[in-house]
Amino acid sequence: GDSVTQMEGPVTLSEEAFLTINCTYTATGYPSLFWYVQYPGEGLQLLLKATKADDKGSNKGFEATYRKETTSFHLEKGSVQVSDSAVYFCALIPYSGAGSYQLTFGKGTKLSVIP
Amino acid sequence: DVKVTQSSRYLVKRTGEKVFLECVQDMDHENMFWYRQDPGLGLRLIYFSYDVKMKEKGDIPEGYSVSREKKERFSLILESASTNQTSMYLCASSLLAGGGLRYEQFFGPGTRLTVL
Q1: Which end of chain B has the smaller Cβ count within 10 Å, N or C?
Q2: Other beta carbons less than 10 A from residue B72's beta carbon
Q3: Could you tell me if B77 lies within 8 Å of chain A, comparing CB atoms?
Q4: Which residue in the set B4, B43, B102 is minimally distant from A93, CB to CB?
Q5: Which tens digits make up the pLDDT trace of B62-97?
Q6: Contact: B103, A101; criterion CB under 8 Å
Q7: pLDDT tens digits for A17-34?
Q8: CA A73 – CA A56 distance, rounded (Å)
């Protein structure tokens, strides 16, 4: 079945450091790929998405590129801030015809940014 | 902006009680979902619904039921709450997929349920 694997956390970085959170997936065809963020005590918010190969999603300084050849969707940010401290989830929706809408999530990566 | 609201942020119930968790979305989405989130286990789908009165089991439906009488409202019911149902419950909604498009899900703030 479909699956998403993301790097184990927690990840601790100093402010202004470069962030990479790795995400790889297993799915048939061309799934849509997402990054969600969950701030402490809150629900999940969509951070960015990509729906086809070589698409780059971006938002709030975060970027991720849909790499079909490596089945990856790594999240990056050039300079993290304390306010980026949260749990980040990689997810996919498979492409398998009409009615395909179920999200498959990775386990989440907790990021802590220290001043 | 899509808004998904949940009836309570925090809830404390006793073992054996019947518990209702309510979710409302205001963007006319066809799909609605209930997840539970536990440390180390991530998010797991309990039930989803793609239309009024329609429901499908997710990965962990045991001990839960759902109701969708109106398009905007999706309720999760714990018929007889147990301590192992202590968790964070998240509701989500999305447009129905079609034409090759797969739509993202929008989440509510969550309900942290404690069963004593």
Answers
A1: N
A2: 16
A3: no
A4: B102
A5: 999 999 999 999 999 999 999 999 999 999 998 876
A6: yes
A7: 999 999 999 987 788 999
A8: 9
